[in-house]
UniProtKB/TrEMBL annotation:
The keyword Nucleotide-binding applies. It comes from the Bacteria. Its EC number is 2.7.1.148. Belongs to the GHMP kinase family. IspE subfamily. It is an enzyme of class 2 (transferase). It catalyses: 4-CDP-2-C-methyl-D-erythritol + ATP = 4-CDP-2-C-methyl-D-erythritol 2-phosphate + ADP + H(+). This is 4-diphosphocytidyl-2-C-methyl-D-erythritol kinase. Residues 217-277 form the GHMP kinase C-terminal domain. It holds the Pfam family GHMP_kinases_N. ATP binds at residues 100-110. Residues 68-148 form the GHMP kinase N-terminal domain. The active site is at 11, 142.
């Protein structure tokens, strides 16, 4: 194989409880996460030299240099492969940047994870030879969950992952006011570091059952994020005016999501919000459910 493609799906923290703090300052979280159909797109091609070229709506927000998480992922995987005497040939990577940057939907982490998945295939590496979860965790707290890229609960600083077998597809609208919010600032603004653990009741039911279960959970970063970026409350109010089943912020913000009854309602809400707030980023999409689980009923 000399060319391959990967989608770096956006994540949504459907619930995010911050339950403590590690000695190194990282926070302990418990988060129910789903991934959307929407994402950045990465292409990989063996080449005479390494390169990274960025296109797409948000290309201007990112440099194609060694600070880019895609660049870091390629370097980390190459180091691990070469340590074992395995091939890691020069590679040209294309990144189509469709997701807003520093927005709580993990675009950068998803890019890094997609880069690991794509290069494992292009370089013909086996998961038996490479400790991918460890490489992912070394790149950022969100990268291990993005490597899995299906419904899950993340614990620890994000690296301790349990796949969820029962989450149905959720029709959602994502709204980002195009104000970047730095994750570290939001964690620093959080006053109570020891909130209740995530105690999820049965989430194997229909959409209404899942929404009821989610209503009893929180995003503990929503309040501190809204202190830093008051526009978060505007976004939540704008979503609320479209009567979603639930509206909440994802991750450290500022992207918020609304869950809607069906894809048509989500699409109409997306159109309405785009009309009212043409300067915001608004997308209606679906989360990928667990294969086999349904949202009917
Ligand atoms: C809040 C979450 C929820 O999924 O997502 P985002 O809002 O970033 O998408 C994650 O915990 C973010 O993961 P990620 O963005 O990969 O974090 P990193 O790059 O590893 O860390 C950025 C900074 O956030 C803080 N941080 C991050 C994760 C964590 N569990 N505790 C922390 O305190 C630290 O100050 C760290 O220096
Ligand atoms: N490929 C990339 N895409 C997005 N952000 C990146 C990338 N590489 C590095 N970054 C940096 O990572 C930080 C987090 O970005 P991102 O993952 O989009 O947000 P969040 O962690 O809030 O979901 C940003 O400050 C950005 O400068």
């Amino acid at each position: 194989m000399d060319e391959t493609v990967e989608t770096a799906r956006a994540k949504i923290n459907l619930a995010l409880h911050v339950t403590g703090r590690r000695a190194d300052g990282y926070h302990l979280i418990e988060s129910l996460v789903a991934f959307t159909e929407l994402g950045d797109v990465l292409t990989f091609r063996t080449s005479n030299h390494d390169s990274l070229s960025i296109s797409g709506v948000f290309a201007g927000e990112l440099a194609a240099n060694e600070d880019n998480l895609v660049f870091k992922a390629r370097s980390s995987l190459r180091r691990a492969a070469e340590k074992r005497g395995l091939p890691a040939p020069r590679t040209a990577i294309g990144l189509e940047k469709n997701l807003p940057v520093a927005s709580g939907i993990g675009g950068g982490s998803a890019d890094a994870a997609a880069c690991l998945r794509g290069l494992m295939r292009l370089w013909d590496l086996s998961p038996d030879d490479i400790d991918l979860p460890a490489i992912a965790a070394g790149l950022g707290a969100d990268v291990p969950m993005c490597l899995v890229s299906r419904p899950l609960i993340a614990r620890g600083a994000g690296e301790n992952i349990t796949a969820i077998d029962t989450l149905p597809v959720l029709p959602v609208v994502l709204v980002n006011p195009l104000e970047a919010v730095a994750t570290a600032d939001v964690f620093a603004e959080l006053t109570n570091k020891n909130n209740d653990v995530l105690d999820l009741p049965d989430i194997s039911g229909d959409l209404n059952g899942i929404v009821a279960a989610l209503a009893a959970t929180r995003n503990d970063l929503q309040l501190p994020a809204a202190h830093i970026a008051p526009v978060v409350d505007e976004v939540l109010a704008a979503l609320g005016a479209c009567h979603p089943l639930l509206a909440r912020m994802s991750g450290s913000g500022a992207t918020c999501f609304g869950i809607f009854h069906d894809p048509v309602e989500a699409r109409l809400a997306g159109e309405l919000l785009r009309d009212r707030y043409p300067h915001w980023w608004v997308r209606s999409t679906m989360t990928g459910g667990t294969p086999g689980a349904t949202g009917d009923g």
